[in-house]
Design a protein that fits this description.
The chain is an all-alpha fold. It has one domain: Farnesyl Diphosphate Synthase. α3 runs antiparallel to α4.
Length: 287
Amino acid sequence: MNSYRVPQLAKKYTDYDMIRQHTEIPSFPDSRARLLQVFVGRTDEKVHDELYALATSLVQLAMDTHDRIDTISGERRELEMRSRQLNVLAGDYFSSRFYQLLAHAGKIEMIGKLSSAVSKVNARKMTLYERMKKLLVSAEEYLRETVQLKMQLFLSFTGMIRDNEASLWNDLLVEFSYCEAIMEELQRMNDEQYFYHSYAFWHIYEYGNDDERNILRQPEPDTRAWSGMVLKYRIGDFLLDKLRECTHRIQLLLQDEEDQLGLHEINAILEPYLTYLQPSHAAVRED
């Protein structure tokens, strides 16, 4: 199998000054991309494992970038307008590169599969967003749906995975998608730009009192009140416990697969999460 260098290859498409200056690139789907390369690298399609991981990551970045486009009506400042326009253009650009890469390699069938997955993701998002708009989503439902949305593109390759490894592939994809989702939520809970409709938002809305729910319903964030609620409900601890549970489930899955090839690569995917859970790195803990 090729060494893992997909994030470096992706920089060819993401490291443009105009994009970096006026918008924020979403988190790279590193765990999912690396997991995909591991499993495809053990099939007859192994010559294309890196290509598939790169192309799928670019589609994911395209969708995640478009998700950052606000839908608020009214006037915006020039910098806000420019950022919004760059989110649109950057997402379209990442998507076009995915088509180009796969078409150049003659992988037209995979273009169709990934395009179909994008349609499924968008339909699922619409259902989720409608429930969110009506404030009908629980924290756990939000997290489950976030994980399912992260998985859909990568599930396009399930038919390519060896039959005896398909179950392991699916289980690990679920768990690593959870790990990525939780890490993002740990960042979002302290970011006033993104904490609306984050896991922390839904947890507090679900378990908070009427006054706290009223604060969450306000169109403008009350940063001080939000920070107090995050501390009160120990959101950081809660998410860290979930991350710890995910890493433990991954370790249990790997214990049953000791004789299979490629496990050292999967352990390498797991390592950053284990490191983050060490006391010296878990700064969000409130002991």
